[in-house]
Amino acid sequence: MFYDRTRELETLEQLYRSDKAEFLVLYGRRRVGKTALIREFIRGKRHVYFMADLSTERDLLRSFSEQVVISVGPTRLMGATFTSWDSALRFLGQIAGSERLIVVFDEFQYLVQANPAFPTVLQRLWDESLQFTRIYLVLCGSYVSFMEERVLGSRSPLYGRRSAQLQLQPMSLPDLAEFFPTYTLEMLVETYAVLGGMPGYLRQFNPSEDLHNNILQNVLRKEAFLYDEVRFLLMQELRDVRVYFSILKAIAHGKTKLNDIYLDSGLADRNVASRYVSTLLDLGVVKRELPVTELHPERSRKGVYKIADYFVRFWFRFVLPNRSLLEEDCPELVLERKIIPHFATFAGPVFEDVCTEILRRANALGRLPAMFDRIGRWWDAGEEVDVVAVGPDALALGECKWKRNEKTTAADLADLKRKAALVRRSAQGNWTTEYYFLFSRAGFSRELVNQAKGDRTLMLFSLPDLMRLVQDGASVSGR
Questions:
Q1: Is the domain defined by 174-346 classed in CATH 1.10.10.10?
Q2: What is the tens place of the pLDDT at every residue in 208-237?
Q3: Which pTM does this prediction carry?
Q4: Taking every pair of C-alpha atoms in the chain, what is the biggest distance, in angstroms?
Q5: CA 53 to CA 89: how far, in whole Å?
């Protein structure tokens, strides 16, 4: 089943309807759903779809020739064989001269790895002839930094030729309701904390089972697809996998500073650690985060590293450290004693990310009480604020509480107001209005609810309130 991606499909369809030469660059991390999106789009349309792999150029060209025969028919090919990418692309250009033809090169980075001159060949043929046909060319890749530098970048031979580019992002929390229509909002947040928004992982869970059973059956059992997924993923993309494992284990267990990562992972020095971490950043597995008030992030020393993929984070936190028990066929023991007692603490930072992302979307839709330029986390000298929104005239601070039985109280608001002075000092801003956003799984004390009724700068968000921000178009108001 194909889920959502309505906006992305419409982008692809709009280019298709132009009926002139189009050149789309589509990229995003593995398991984010690029291939599923492409296959849904090309269904029922004349197309040549080719997924490259780690084969030699000769084998890739032979496989591509076979795919062309299947797609356009042997009579159109008239017995010709392609001895080069030049001849193959010229042949497709001839067909596209008289009819709409979609040509998809999936996992494009492997084609370039086999023949580094491929982008130059494509650029020359595009300039000479393909741009004057009705071809719809799609270059699709999973290595984000490669696609941005070698295809979209100013030094690429293909620079400036594209009609459009689309970086496919993981699905957001509200999208998960389509995968799990019977789940409560709490269950959706917890599932998101395990799998994130990667469709390739979400489809592994059974919507008829609860989260714990899904983890047991689809992550912790040795025969499950997700049991070894992270190891296979890293082995496919990286050399020195053991080193990357050490780095990711360190980050998953709270080592977020580069110096701490290198010490914990046992690398030779900090520069070596930096190179390995940079590769993980390029792959999108790790991200670097800065306090939202930093005006010069390129010079900041306050950056911390986090695992960007929630499932990778879950795997390194709970699966890898317990492999011995899992290999001894004790998944129930791991679930009951190693995961469930610590899961609320594990999911808390994900809830903070969810609140931040939904506020960003609501801000873009104009549904917050003021417009903000930046929304993110803030920390300094041992103090931290879960969500801070910085605007030209307004500042907002937010606290996110995921504990099941702990309501947010007036004391939490007082502490947030205390931190506001610290944020103002570090940001050196001059705001006329300050807002306070409190997000709580367990709800709010009666005192705090009454206080919010007479204070337009104080907003309280339960899980349903948070979801409504981006679902029904309502603006924020105090309660």
A1: yes
A2: 999 999 999 999 999 999 999 999 988 887
A3: 0.87
A4: 81
A5: 19
